[in-house]
Structure formats: C-alpha cells, structure tokens
Amino acid sequence: MKPEARAESILRRLTFDEKVAMLYGYMPRVDRLGVGAFNTGGEAVHGVVASVPGTVFPQAVGLGATWHPELLEEVGAVIGTEVDLLLRADPPDPMTGRNLWAPVVNLLRDPRWGRNEEGYSEDPLLTVRLAVGFCRGLRGEHDRAGAGPRWRTAPTLKHFLAYNHEVDKFTESVDVRPRVLHEYDLRPFLDVVREGVVAAVMPSFSLVNGRPNHLSEHLRILREADPDLVVVADGFAPSDLVEKTRYYDDRAHAYPAAIRAGLDSFTDHFGDPTITLDALHQAVTLGLLCEEDVTAAARRLLRMRARLGEFDEPPPAPDPDPGRADRHAALARQAVRESVVLLRNDGLLPLRPGAAGEIAVVGPLADRLCRDWYGGQLPYRVTPLDGIREQAGGSRVTFEAGVDRIALRLRADGRYLTVGDESTDGELRAGGSELTDAACFDVFDWGEGGICLRSVSNGLFLWSKGAPLRCNRIEPHGWDVRETFRLHRRQDARLLWHDYTEGYAAVQDDGRLLPGADPDRASPIEVELVRRGTDAAAATAAGADTVVLCVGTYPHINGREMLDRQDVGLPPALAELARTVIDANPDTVVALISGHPLAVPELAGRARALLWSAHGGQEFGNGLADVIFGACSPAGRLPQSWPRSVGDLGDITDYDIIKSRLTYLYSDRQPLYPFGHGLSYSSFDYGALRLDATAAAPGDRVTVSVDVTNVGDVDADEVVQLYLRALKPPLPLPRHQLHAFRRVHLPAAACRAVELTLAVDDLGYWDVGSGRHRVAPGPYEVMVGGSSAAIARRAVLTVTAPPPVPRDVTGTSVRAVDFDDYQNVRIVDEARLTGEAVEARSDGAWLLYRDADLGRGPDRIVARMGGGAPGGQLQVRLGDPAGGHLLGVLDVPTCDGRYEWRTVEAPLAGPGGRHDLYLVLPAGARLASFALCPPPEPLSPEARDR
C-alpha cells in the first residue's frame, strides 16, 4: 500500500481525541490500530546526538567549507545509518528519532551570530546544494515492493526564517522586506523543499516583521511547494508565544492560531503533553479550533511516518558489519581534510615528515577537541597534537599549551584554595599555606566568554550549578555552560565571579566555596602567578625548528545559542600568545580553529602559514595533520567572507543586506579574506571561457565550460566557481553572485574540461511591483575562477527579456511593504496572522515606489492607515522625499489599537506620467496599503446632453 493510502486508512479510524494527541511532539501509541509511539525530534547537524557515542564530523560550517555536495550526501548517509541502528537497538536509543532536526540552512549573514557554526554559508546557492546533498544522505531510500521507497529518516530544515541573532530574539522583531525575503532568506528553505528531499521544517523562536515565526504567513509559500510538508515547533516555542513573546494572552488562543498558520507538531514541556492537549481542547470548546484543522495536521504527520515505513513490516535487521566503524571514521577524516582552508602560505607548508627538525605544538586548542550541542558524543579523540605526533616521522615533537598557571589565596588568612581528591569529588576548599599542584590552576582565557580554570592536580575543570565549586568536569559542555568564571577587581583584591549562578564565590564555615554570593559576602582573594603562559610558549617555540600554533575560539563560550559574539577577533590572550610565538620563531604555522570567521589582520600579515578549520570532530587531528604534512593538498574554500574588523559588520539585527551592503553579494568593503578563498599546494591555470550561447532568455540554460590545468607538481583539488553580475542593473543587484561551482580532482599536470550550467531564471530579482521574480535584460558578466576575488576568465552573456514595466499605482491597491527603498521605517504585522504593514520610526520617514505610472495624473489617494499622533500628515511627493513636487497631503487617523485600521483619503493634484513616487510619513504612522485614484473620465457630449 502506498504511504498516502496507508496514512489515510489510519486517519479515518482515529477518534478526534487521538488526532489531537498526535499533534504533540511525543505522539502516544494507538494500540488498537497498531500505531506505535513517535517522537518528532532528533539532533543531527554534524553527527547524531544520542545516549551513546557516534561518528562526529566537522561542524556544519566546516562541512560548508568543503564545497562538496557529494561528500555531504555521504556524511548524511552515515548519520542516517547510525540513527537507524540506534532505533533498532533493544531498547531503542531514547535521545533520537527518525524525524531529524537537521540541517540548519539559515544563511550566515553575520559571523557574530552565536550559532554560526550550525549553518553552511552566507551564500544561498552553496547552502542549497550542500543541504540537498546532506538531506539525500540522511533520508536515504529503500525500495518496498509495490509501495515506493522507504525513507531511513525524515530531515527537517531549520530555523525558518531570517534567524541570525540570539540577543532579544524572543521579543524584538527584525525587518525583512520582500526583496530580501525572496532573493535571500527564503531561498535555502524553498529551494531545498522543491528538491523533494525533506519531510519537515522548523520555525525559529525569533520574530520577523512583527510576527513570531511560528505564526509566519510565509510558511504557506513552503506548503505551496510541498502540501505534505510537516511544520514542527522548536522546543517550548508554543509556550513562548504566551510567556516570552507575549503575542497571545493564553495558550487557548495561541495554539489554534499556530495550527492555522501551519504548525503541525507541538514540541513543548518535553514528556508532559497535558499543557498542550488541554490548550487544544479548550480551543475546540471556544470554537477557535475545528476538526478539519486538526485532521489536516494529523494527515501530514501520518504521511511522514508512513514514508518512513513505520506502518509496514520492518525490513530485516542489517547484518553485522565489523568494518562499518572504520569506514565511518575514514569519512570523518576525509571531511576534515576537505574542509581545512589554507588562507596564507609563503612556502612553509607542507612540512616534510622527518625533515622538519623539532616541531613545537603550541596553544590551548592543540591538545583537545571541543564538542558543541549538535554533534553527538565523540567515540574517541584525535587532537592536533596526536595527529602531528603520528605523522611527524623522525621529527621530535614538543608541546606547550601557552596558558597562565595561577594559584588563588584567601586575602583574609593567606590560605590557598585547593582541589580535593576523588573522595571529595574534587571539591574546592580553603586549604593550607603551602603551594602544591592541588592549589594550581591553568587559566584558559576566552576573552569576552570568560575564563575556565583547570586543576593541575587532576586535570579537570572547575564548575558549579549552585552547589559548592568542584573540579570534576572533563570539559566545558552542556546546554547551560557552568564552567566559566571572571576575576573581578575589588580594591586591591579580586572576587571570583561565576557566570552561571551570576554571583561571587564565598568560603563557607566548612571551608567549601559556594557561588552566588553578593559582593559584600564574597571572599576576597589574591591571584598568584605561578607561570606565565606566553613565557613558556616563547621558550618552547624558540627551541624548535618549526611551530604549529593552535588557537581559536571555544564552542559554548565564544558564542552559542542564546549568546552572540560582541567581537570576531581572537580572544586577546590568544592574540598575545600568537604575537609572542611568532616573535620567538617566525617559522610558525598558525591553525585557527573556530566555528566562525575571525578578524585577524595582524596574523594575516605576519604568519608564514595560516590555516582555518571549524572544530572538526573525532578525526580532527588526523585530518589537520594530513594537510600540514602534505598527505593531501588543501582545497577547503571559505563559505563566508572574513571581515577585517567587527566595525565592517554593521548592526547584527539589520537583515537588509541590499540597503546596508552586507555579505559578499553587496559589500564594497575590502574583506580580510573573500568568499570562496582558499589556497593549494599546487597552482591552476584556466583556459578560455566557453559559453554554448552568448545570448539567452528566461527559461534557457547556458553551458559554461573551461579547461582547468594543474600546473604544479602536486595532485590537488580545485573548486571552480562561477559568478555573474549585471553590467547595467536597473536597480541594486549583487556585485557578484555564485551561480555554479564544482570541486574537481586534478593530478599534477592534468587538464580537465569543467562544465557548469547556468539557469537564466536564477539571474532574477524579486520585482516588488508585480510580486514575482523577473530577469533584467542586458549584458551580464560571466566570471570563473578560484574565489569571488580570484577571477581567472570572463565573458559576456546578453539576456533578452522584456524590459521592466512601470508600476501601476493608479486604481489598484499597493501593499505598503512592497517599496523599492525606504528610510526610518520598520515592518509590522497588519493582523495577528496575515498581512504586513509599515510604521514610521520618526518624522520624515519615507517609502519609495520607483517608476510609478501616474496615468493622466492622480485625483486622490486612498490609504489604509493606523497609529499616528494627532495632526500628523502623510505627504505624497515626486522625485525626492524632501523637496520633490508635492501632490498632496493626507491626515493620518488616530487609532488606539495595534490592529485598528481606517481607510482615509485626500485629494491630489499634479502631473501624470512615470515618476519616482515617495510617501513621507510622520512618526508612529502605520500604512498597510494605498492607491492613487485617477480623475473621473470626462463626460461625452451625448452624456452631458442626457
């Protein structure tokens, strides 16, 4: 039986209460129908999050740096296979399910975003192609006789929509005008859904255009592309509509509104369905929710489950495969190798095993691997130090973390704070006056993220969740980060501040230290420097022939979910360490390890070799060493442009990349490293660029080919990148935009013809006047090369398309939000579930409607308006918002309610024809729509006589 038929058969036999129960994220069993329990939710961004270890790949932004969709399909297949095995275990793993909440396709517009490491790229096309590959692998397809393919997992795209900041995301809305929506933020969701490789989408916690994304009217665009698309809530997001966002006063109104907006599955109060189900039943009683709405949501959920084969006989269990773990580990290593980006190299790399002399490995990230929240448990750890030692051949390898070592003494009596043994579970207590290893801590200084203190005596980190402080944590990890501290100065002493409990440490009567005290009850301490990390690092570096310095940022600490970064440079302590090491030994390879771009102009100018990698999972050390020692030539390419400073980034809540000229698409700022950048141990020559047509029209596809030759003596991969730009754009369009790419392997001296396909429709922009995509006619420059700034060959393609037509604003209603340009306005919700409007932030705010056709000249304006202070007037001007021809003014109505609107009108007088039309608004005025009405047609003589 086909999945749709099987789902419909079950749906017909469900009671209404059973249908309602299915809308909760932890669906209960229906034994009488043979329907088992089902969990909508499992994390798998770069490895399955489970109760047991699994294969952990590089962070998603590292996978993005591979520019290799086929590799991501293999990665997705490994994760899907491991999920399948976990759910076939007896008992099944409790932490995962077949509906996987991955991948993250939010575009990486701003590297300060705390969750930057979860996405692939700032570019829509690269994100789409990688996400499609990953989803194909996750989903898999297994034939069922006569019933179509069985999915292994059901991938879920997250987080819809325009989600790139953490601070105030529950309460402060961001503006996404139609061009930015359709050309940028919507694309990775809509294009991947159209590929048919996902089962679901998850809205974000944030608000766009005044409305929470769990109520977004834009979800319908995805539903139009796939009517069976399931919409699942993020954790606790339904309750947030009431408790944090306060968009509704109670759940009985919020939850049916979410269902009407498109939500199918409520992830709320994990394991406790009563709150959700009570609210839904109350909504039914109040007449706010009908059975048809519930049935439609349950149908989509059942169809997803049917495609997973849940209602069929389970396929036979896979045979034992003793080689599976080794194959998965080999793929994890390959993913690291392909993701490492060589930013700079003056010939220091690659190092030659056994011929590099003494190698000093330095830095706090050299002897550790960092986990994050969405990558699972590591089955083992190969650190950079491990990998370098393994591949160094006869070269001697030394190590120095380069961190300060300190002791903490109580100011009152001089006793050291010491770490207890296993019998006390590492409790921190006021000890004696003798300096021992138990009183010493290595300080890992993460800058704005605070410091972590690791005991020298047991090698474990200090932490607390409110109980006395103790050193028994292997690493900073967990949803709530409890291992970060700050040493605040107070007069001539210090107070130990604990970030998690938001208070100071105080010694108790029994000698233990309890965090959370106010300053007056805190215990003043003195910090004794036992060893300066930079001195030790300099000595180690100076005594070596070559240095590999591993520095960067820490997941959970330097930005995470709920915490954006304030800066994008190296933490100051690590920047100082880098300067010191390079001063001591210029032959230094700097490996930058982070889940986001780093503004490091000084290092870019001083380091002889500079590498970047995201945190890379279990095989990170081996993959990094493969690149350092030349076992492979690096071919990772930056999925984001790197700024020179945080000042190049603007406001993190400014999502209008067009007006603010953000991302590589529009920015005219010189980046530190451009989008697509990455060096190789070889060199490549590009032959003449060939287009199979020099002119094309919308609907056409053009084949672009180029011969690429490896002119070096090293086998290597090259990532061939195709960009286009309009030479005569009718409105602001990207300075250059990626339209195709291919990662190709070329042996030394080999040549390969690389073909790339360009779809002319992809050149389109969102025409706000017509509400559809339009391709501008004229010449386009076709550019091919190794990065967005390393263009090797160029050609011109002429696009023949209808010229832009003037906007019709007379006699037809125009949505205010469909403006071409603006100043000092924000976009707001017109009603709770539908419509968008514009609100003036200040007097003199304006909206531009470019090339408006005023016909014979407008006679009056009719507008749907709200807000505004008494006496405010809307001005209608031509050509300029300040001194342009004034057609007339409209008194803004005073409305009390947020959703109160009135239709008002006023006479106009002025010329007809085509003009740039400006509407100038007073502070607080809200405009939903308007129309300019033509004068009445003059009466004919016959009509006058009648």
From TrEMBL:
Transmembrane segments: none annotated. The keyword Signal applies. Keywords: Hydrolase, Signal. Residues 812-933 form the CBM6 domain. The keyword Cytoplasm does not apply. Pfam families: CBM_6 (PF03422), Fn3-like (PF14310), Glyco_hydro_3 (PF00933), Glyco_hydro_3_C (PF01915). This is Sugar hydrolase. SMART domains: CBD_IV, Fn3_like. Belongs to the glycosyl hydrolase 3 family.
